[in-house]
Predict the structure.
Amino acid sequence: MEADLRRAVNATLMPGFTGPVLPDWLARELADGLGSVCLFGTNIVEPTQLRALTTAIHAANPNALIATDEEGGDVTRLHHREGSPYPSMAYLGHLDDEDTTERVGAGIGAELRAAGIDLNLAPDADVNSNPRNPVIGVRSFGTDPGLVGRHVAAYTRGLQAAGVAACAKHFPGHGDTSADSHRELPTITVDAATLAARELVPFRAAVAAGTLAVMTSHIVVPALDPDLPATLSSRVLGLLREELGFTGAIVSDALDMAGASAGRGIPEAAVLALAAGVDLLCIGTDNSAAELAEIRAHVLQAVTEGRLPESRLRDAAARVAALAEGVAALRRSGPVVPVPTPAPLSPEGFWLRHPIRPVRAPVFLRLGSAANIAAGETVWGVSDHLASELDRWLPGATCVDVHDEAALSAVLDTHADRPLVVQGRDLARVPFLADATAMVLQRRPDAVVVDLGWPELPGAVDIATYGSGRGAATCLIRLLAEGTR
């Protein structure tokens, strides 16, 4: 019985690890019933290596779920070295073509399935109602709940039709925050009526579309529970089960985030999350055998002490098993689809303040913009990694990075006679970026200003691309080369 209970705990755990090869300790955990593994950029080098890694994981435990965050746009694990060819969700929402969104979901799903990945921690179902949101932004389909819901459903249909489970996130909605739950515990101070009419709408759509999983958020919603973040709140997760009628697997956001474990530690956060109704615990990005052993021991002690009912633990393990079977059912129901070549992005998904004239041999000035923690460090915007596209469309173009106003002033002096394209992410939200944009426009009012993040400077921004991935950046290069037609 003790071994059986231990395996039940293991079934609820989804750790991450470092490196491109399956570690021995993790292979042993998988053989002992570990329910899932989450892959990050540090685990992925190239397709052959990735397929060897996922094959090794499934060999150690054929029922284990391999998960990753492959949203498209800024958040990519498969393409972290070269940038995602797929658009962000904000681009798709601005384009507002549900067929395109479904095709993007299907394309990402086909690529994940070919790589041996079972669960995509996407789509983002947050309504980005706060433009200063530091963690959601272009990961959201938009600000209108109905629009977000339609595209969440379309993305989910496409992804799951390709044989990969969707996981709508971050319940009950992370869009109306100005804080990042990776660093602190945000609070959303809306009443229940606003929550129902705004935040919950896309999650209802995801449930109706048949999403196999939903991810929680580490935010406090006083209208539902004034004391605990959603991940640890039976009231909030009860709403998902009882009012929205969701019967699939509830997955936690990473428990190493401050919003979940600050002041209590990951093992206690794991106990509270399971007790609240979470089924699969995302632990973090760089876990170890010792850390998993500590979590497991703490959960087993909580069962012994009666703080975590054994029935709840076994229910969680059963729901994880049902999620794995759900993925298998998706794959039985349809043929393997070849991985498509992603369609080039169209400028129709961009916001343009005015018609764009073609430029020749511009200087691309990239303003230093800190990476969104969820996205991690990856290539972004128009820079030297797109040298082949620049040589093709804008020969003679130069790429320059600046991170402070002194360097910016020097660049403006050096390139006073060249067309200038300024790019940054969230120009209005980050003080340096707002100040730098103002300096550029004072000295070079002819400059083309491009916001690759969530646009909020309608008088200063010329182009908003709703994302900084390779697909958006390549489309921007073509737009500047050809101008609007």
